[in-house]
Write a structure and sequence with these properties.
The complex is a heterodimer of chains A (about 425) and B (about 425). The longest helix of chain A is centred in the C-terminal third of the chain and has 28 residues. In chain A, helix 6 runs parallel beside helix 8 and helix 7 packs antiparallel against helix 8. The N terminus of chain A is likely disordered. Chain A is built from 16 helices and 5 strands. Chain A has 2 domains: about 110 residues, no CATH class; about 260 residues, ABC transporter involved in vitamin B12 uptake, BtuC. Chain A is mostly helical and about 425 residues long. Helix content of chain B is about 70%, strand content about 0%. Chain B has a single domain, classed as ABC transporter involved in vitamin B12 uptake, BtuC (Orthogonal Bundle), CATH 1.10.3470. Classes of the chains: A mainly alpha (about 425), B mainly alpha (about 425). Chains A and B meet through helix 1, helix 8, helix 14 and helix 16 of A and helix 9, helix 14 and helix 16 of B.
């Protein structure tokens, strides 16, 4: 149980960590200069377009002199590094790390688009839409794991949700019924997870693996046997863009935030609801107490099993909903193993986001950004293989998990089956 | 088990059985065998029955027949399921009638073709043996290596690289070198999560999942550039040198190769390591009770790192085997789920090398048979994933099987693997 006590013992940043962080900041500052600044010439200008694709709200382009921008970025990072080494930012260290990392990424964009133009708004827009399934999947993980049930089956639930969503949506000619089907299929799989891991006390990883293998087999089977032969069974259409009347006319922010399809708004709504629900209601307190110390919760009269079942079922519905995004919100048809590991990136986003809804969203956005940037690299003519950017979420999660950037607060009883005495 | 006074030299098979059951030697031999095999066998049988039901439920033919009357429908149901499993059987074992005719005719090619299915099942079982051993070794030391899939890829990458880039070396050197390279690749991919677990407490389940995807992206990149065959646009590596290939025993079309016997040898080595060496004992002790092992002076850090590296090496050999024995090159997505299936079969084999080999033979046979079933009966090959998931569920929750068949509940200790997420 040593691994559980470590995060509790960790109270504040140690001096070694402070120094290491200072060196990291300086290293990033140096990298901005060495990797980007050296190869940029003085006359180059970087142009960022701030009007996403089809938007009618035109915002003037943002023009930056490449070299001086890079120097400013490097200098700011270096100063932050110096301050960190001399004084230390204390509790703010991680936020400053985020800032410096952000400056580094911005430096990269400025360098990559030197002498060219890059549609920054479009990039952010794609990041947001790629973040939707990741965030929703991570929310599924948050719900389950906060109650002490590990859910590595997000991938399988998403995949099934995607398939059922497409099938039901096509058969009934109703996107909403398709979505309902997706949610219910997630619920059904979560019941398997719940019965195996809560009732039969199967190891939760194994039970999750069962669902993942089952979901891959089942969806590919049905796809190969029916969906590929009968086009009318796999053509549900997608939810349209719903621009919100006044808000979508706001320059820059409007097209990004208020001109999306239903899933994006639902994601923001669910984020808020789950955040408030988990941290500000009795329901949430009970759910979390079951995940932290089920025996104590049981002593206080909380039904551990019922709470866990409920959490797992809600998580399953969430993952099914996330799966619906792939077919009903994005592609408009089901293809075999179309989630392609996004369920596992969701898991990573949940960990990266420290088991909190908004943290997960932040991580989802970051991973979505890496994803959308990866597809832009070739267009920009950058000679970095896009695969390395696609690896970034996984590597970042391992770094976070190793405690390099401060240790996450995993629920204490996460993954431990509860035995009532 | 060994503290009992030995009145007579015990046979190896008996010792094996005791270790397999972990049970006291009082019960009769057949009783113990029954206890060990009962739940796995029933799990497989139940899985196959439910799989048949699934095939029936997704068959248009059956629904059409039910339209013509109940008995018609029921009859067609049995027909459809029977036809599917008959195709599975002939695909996996071979057609008995054809074997007899071939033997009578004495035509060498016909005989090879008739025996091909069963040998092809052994070919399909080989990576499962390696992968299952890897996952099982992890289980034995209390670690959940869910990253076999990634380790398979990295093992395959290194084996393929050594296979085509080293030239002019005799097979006696080249083949072992390629095998070692593959094992090393897998070991590296297991070492990293093992080291992270031991030194930082980062959970190996999450880390191995992450390592899986890092490995996939790595192989995507290598196959799209550095390791791509120069003359084509397909993401596939150059063909390996003949000196690095695992030799095949028969002429075309039989692909049966030395890898199968290498796998059996490795299974024996794993058995010997786990049950006959101090390090193996330490590994199992840390797996069953880490605090007691630590108290006894065993290093959990060393044991964890060693176990994950070895586990990875074994999984890496699964990928190596596919490259050196079957494909002779590295292609994208060549593994198709061997790593995840290995988890199921390691549990089915109760994490014991002998059990793993048996379970791997079963899974390989199913996989090979399903290929034939797809062609002959129009059942998508993905049916085996469904079967495997159900078998895994029943193995992991034996209480379900016991409830279905109204078996006596065991006293205790049926749970094979009880490691948890939170550490320990």
């Amino acid at each position: 149980m040593a691994a559980i006590t470590v995060p509790q013992a960790w109270v504040g940043p140690s001096t070694t960590r402070q120094r290491v962080m200072g060196i990291v900041f300086l290293f990033l500052a140096f990298s901005i200069w060495w990797l980007f600044g050296r190869t940029a010439s003085g006359e180059q200008v970087t142009v960022f377009n701030l009007t996403p694709g089809a938007s009618t709200v035109i915002v003037p382009d943002w023009q930056l002199p490449t070299l001086s921008t890079l120097y400013v970025l490097a200098m700011v990072s270096a100063v932050l590094g110096g301050v960190q080494l001399a004084r230390g930012f204390g509790r703010w260290t991680n936020r400053v790390l985020g800032l410096v990392a952000g400056l580094f990424i911005f430096g990269f964009l400025v360098w990559a688009a030197a002498g060219k133009s890059l549609n920054l708004a479009g990039l952010i827009n794609t990041s947001l839409s790629r973040a939707v399934p990741l965030t929703l999947g991570a929310l599924s993980g948050v719900l389950c794991e906060r109650a002490g049930v590990v859910n590595i089956a997000i991938e399988g639930m998403m995949l099934t949700g995607a398939m059922v969503g497409s099938l039901v949506g096509s058969v009934t000619h109703s996107l909403w019924l398709g979505l309902l089907g997706a949610i219910l299929s997630g619920l059904l799989l979560s019941l398997i997870h719940g019965v195996l891991s809560i009732k039969y006390k199967t190891n939760q990883i194994i039970s999750g693996t069962v669902i993942n293998i089952l979901a891959t087999g089942m969806t590919s089977y049905i796809s190969a046997k029916f969906l590929q032969h009968y086009e009318q069974l796999n053509n549900p259409g997608i939810f349209p863009q719903w621009p919100i009347p006044v808000l979508s006319r706001i320059p820059l922010l409007g097209p990004l935030l208020f001109d999306n399809n239903m899933f994006v708004y639902a994601m923001f709504l669910l984020l808020a609801v789950i955040h408030v629900g988990l941290f500000f209601t009795r329901w949430g307190l009970r759910l979390r107490s079951v995940g932290e110390h089920p025996k104590a919760a049981d002593t206080l009269g909380i039904n551990v099993f019922r709470t866990r079942y409920m959490a797992v079922m809600l998580g399953g519905m969430m993952a099914g909903f996330a799966g619906g995004y792939f077919t009903l919100g994005s592609v408009g048809r089901f293809d075999e193993v179309m989630t392609a590991g996004r369920g596992f990136i969701s898991l990573a986003a949940m960990i990266f986001g420290n088991w909190t809804p908004f943290g997960s969203f932040g991580a989802g956005l970051l991973f979505g950004f890496a994803d959308s940037l990866a597809s832009k690299l070739a267009i920009l003519g950058v000679r970095i293989p896009s695969e390395f950017l696609l690896m970034a979420p996984y590597v970042a999660t391992m770094v976070v998990l190793a405690g390099v950037v401060g240790r996450g607060q995993m629920p204490a009883a996460d993954g431990v089956a509860y035995e009532k005495e | 088990m060994d503290d009992k006074p030995k009145t007579q030299p015990r046979k190896a098979g008996k010792i094996l059985l005791e270790e397999l059951t972990g049970g006291p030697p009082e019960a009769s031999r057949s009783g113990r065998l029954r206890r060990v095999l009962l739940v796995p066998v029933l799990a497989v049988v139940t899985g196959l029955l439910l799989g048949g039901l699934f095939i029936v439920l997704t068959s248009e033919e059956v629904y059409a027949a039910f339209g013509q009357g109940l008995f018609n429908g029921l009859g067609t149901s049995f027909l459809v399921a029977g036809r599917a499993y008959a195709a599975l059987f002939t695909g996996a074992i071979g057609d008995p009638a054809r074997i007899v005719t071939a033997l009578q005719s004495g035509d060498a090619l016909a005989i090879r073709r008739a025996f091909n299915p069963i040998l092809e099942s052994l070919v399909a079982s080989t990576p499962y043996i390696f992968g299952g051993l890897g996952v099982a070794l992890g289980f034995q030391s209390g670690l959940f290596n869910i990253g076999a899939e990634g380790q398979i890829f990295v093992g395959a990458i290194l084996a393929a690289f050594v296979g085509y880039s080293v030239t002019g070396v005799p097979a006696i050197l080249h083949l072992p070198l390629a095998l070692l390279a593959g094992a090393f690749g897998g070991a590296l991919w297991g070492f990293i999560p093992g080291w992270l677990k031991a030194k930082t407490g980062g959970h190996e389940v999450i880390n191995t999942i992450m390592m899986n995807y890092v490995a996939f992206r790595l192989s995507d990149w290598l196959l799209s550039g550095p390791m791509k065959r120069p003359e084509t646009f397909n993401p596939v590596s150059p063909t390996i040198e003949p000196t690095a290939m695992l030799p095949r025993f028969f002429e075309q079309p039989i692909r049966f190769h030395l890898g199968f016997f290498v796998a059996l040898g490795v299974a024996w080595l794993v058995y010997w390591f786990l049950y006959r060496t101090t390090w193996g004992f330490a590994l199992r002790s840390v797996g069953s009770n880490p605090s007691a092992a630590r108290y006894a002076g065993m290093s959990t850090v060393r044991s964890t790192i060693l176990a994950m590296s070895l586990s990875g090496a074994l999984a890496g050999l699964a990928g190596t085997n596919e490259v050196l024995g079957v494909n002779h090159n590295l292609a994208m997505a060549f593994s198709s789920g061997y790593g995840f299936d290995s988890i199921a079969l390691a549990l089915l084999g109760k994490s014991h090398p002998v059990g793993v080999v048996l379970a791997a033979l079963l899974f390989g046979t199913l996989r090979n048979g399903a290929t034939r079933m797809q062609v002959a009966a129009g059942i998508p090959i993905d049916i085996i994933s469904i079967l495997q998931a159900m078998i895994l569920a029943f193995i992991a929750a034996p209480a379900i099987i016991r409830t279905i068949y109204r078996l006596r509940q065991p006293d205790k200790g049926e749970q094979i693997f009880t490691g948890t997420w939170g550490g320990g």
